[in-house]
Design goal:
Layout lengths: L22 H12 L2 H15 L3 H25 L6 H8 L2 H36 L22 H14 L3 H26 L15 H12 L19 H30 L10 H8 L3 H35 L18 H17 L3 H29 L14 H14 L4 H25 L1 H6 L1
Helix pairs in contact: 1-7, 1-9, 1-11, 2-3, 2-8, 2-9, 3-8, 3-9, 3-13, 3-14, 4-5, 4-13, 5-6, 5-11, 5-12, 5-13, 5-15, 6-11, 6-12, 7-9, 7-11, 10-11, 11-12, 13-14, 13-15
């Protein structure tokens, strides 16, 4: 069995999608995917439970690890400008089996992200409805949990349907709502900083590092995942006007902007509220209520509800492109590569992605699946770092105009070590679920993908 057969770069160069995305669209896509529950929820959890006011250092450490991985993505995006992200890149450098593993793990990661954000959005929206005296029947408020009297999350299901229909539109149109909501997100953050800066009490920053450096590193392991989503930019490569130039810039630009915003919000947040009180679901809005700025807190809550849509749009957009790319190679059924004649978008892949997202968001308990996000993402990032080393051996140094990772192989090796270090911080349950998911992915590949692969058919 030739499970490590490689896909020539030229094969992926054929493009039927509409190229219309610019650098601004890519940065907006990246920010829409990155900045969501991280800045509005994880900031408080990291401060209260791990690093205290020093959680801003945790964000910087996590950002450094993400940038190490981001520049690996950038070189691949510059030299192999095709959609599919790590899946397509691994196909070129390591071969089909490794590509499938990367693609399968990404499907798990994006599927979980889409579903969990939709469910989180439902929770925020239901809280808002309750504040104005409107409530849903208990059975329709959350996923299947008979002990709690819940069977389906109606609002999460409805929002998945809405987002799926929106993402089937032209890429430019589908991302227009995303771009608008990103500006709303910026507005919420600016409002918080503009009001909160006048209520900062420097004594709240003491002790600055209450849990020591170990707490800071533990915090970094947590907030690392607040940066995930930058890879969604590489999924859109086939719809970018100048992918070699703009995809790397979009990846690095979105990471840097997110880092600056995370640090500023954490600085203000821990300056307003003693860190021990920030372990709440809505720390940013809670901080406003803490200083008796209830109206501002309500505005921030509404803004957060709106802007969480951007994460759902970005992740579903990326998931659909990933499924489309894999189906083009025959590893998933061919009907998933059908393109909408009017909008030039992968219609069937989007509907399938949306259907699975709808199922998990509305009916499936996410507590076990949530643990997969961390380890699947880190595994893909480690593969990408190793892939850059292999890419250099295959194609040599990047040419003029192509992005270049400095100090290869040193920086990619450091990136792999950092990913493995964070993976080892995860508990045995997470590793068990990860292995089960990996075995399921291998079963799909050997049961369907290998036989139907385009490369297999051409050799037979």
């Amino acid at each position: 069995m030739e499970v490590f057969r490689k896909r020539p770069i030229e094969k992926n160069s054929t493009n039927v999608l509409k190229r219309e995305l610019k650098l601004k669209d890519l940065i907006m896509l990246g920010i829409g995917a990155i900045i969501g529950t991280g800045i509005f929820v994880v900031t408080g959890q990291a401060s209260a439970n791990y690093a205290g006011p020093a959680s801003m250092i945790s964000f910087i450490i996590a950002a450094l690890v993400v940038v190490l991985n981001g520049i690996c993505f950038a070189e691949f995006a510059s030299r192999v400008p095709v959609s599919g992200g790590p899946y397509s890149y691994m196909y070129v450098v390591f071969g089909e089996l490794t590509a499938w593993i990367a693609g399968w793990l990404l499907i798990c990661q994006y599927m979980l992200a889409v579903s969990s954000v939709a469910a989180g959005w439902s929770g925020y929206f239901q809280g808002f409805l309750s504040s104005v005296g409107v409530g849903l029947p208990q059975a329709l408020t959350a996923g299947y949990n008979p002990e709690e009297g819940t069977y389906i999350d109606l609002i999460a299901g409805l929002v998945m349907i809405l987002i799926t229909l929106w993402v089937t539109q032209e890429a430019k149109k589908a991302l227009r709502l995303n771009n608008a909501m990103v500006w709303v997100k910026f507005g919420v953050i600016i409002l918080f900083v503009a009001v909160g800066v006048f209520f900062v009490q420097p004594e709240n920053w003491q002790p600055y590092m209450p849990f020591g450096m170990q707490g800071v590193f533990n915090g970094a392991a947590l907030v690392f995942f607040a940066f995930l989503g930058f890879d969604s930019i590489s999924m859109a490569a086939e719809e970018v006007e100048n992918p070699r130039r703009d995809v790397p810039r979009g990846i690095i630009g979105s990471i840097l902007i997110a880092t600056i915003l995370y640090v500023i919000v954490t600085l203000i947040l821990t300056g307003i509220v003693p860190f021990s009180q920030l372990g709440v679901a809505d720390p940013v809005a809670f901080a406003m209520r803490y200083i008796n700025q209830g109206f501002t807190g309500s505005v921030i809550s509404v803004g957060t509800i709106l802007t969480l849509l951007t994460v759902t749009i970005s992740m579903l957009y990326s998931l659909a492109r990933l499924i489309y790319s894999i189906s083009k190679d025959g590893l998933l059924p061919k009907f998933l590569q059908q393109i909408d004649n009017k909008h030039r978008t992968p219609k069937n892949a989007t509907f399938v992605a949306g259907a699975f997202g709808l199922f998990f968001a509305a009916a499936f308990p996410l507590n076990i699946l949530a643990e997969l996000t961390n380890i699947t993402a880190l595994t893909c990032l480690a593969l990408m770092a190793l892939g850059v080393i292999r890419l250099r051996k295959m194609l040599g140094e990047p040419k003029k105009g192509e992005f270049k990772v400095p100090f290869v192989p040193l920086l990619p090796i450091i990136s792999v070590i950092s990913c493995v270090f964070l993976m080892l911080q995860l508990d045995k349950v997470t590793w068990t679920v990860f292995i089960i998911a990996l075995l399921l992915g291998l079963l799909i590949y050997f049961g369907y993908g290998y036989k139907h692969s385009d490369l297999n058919e051409k050799r037979s």
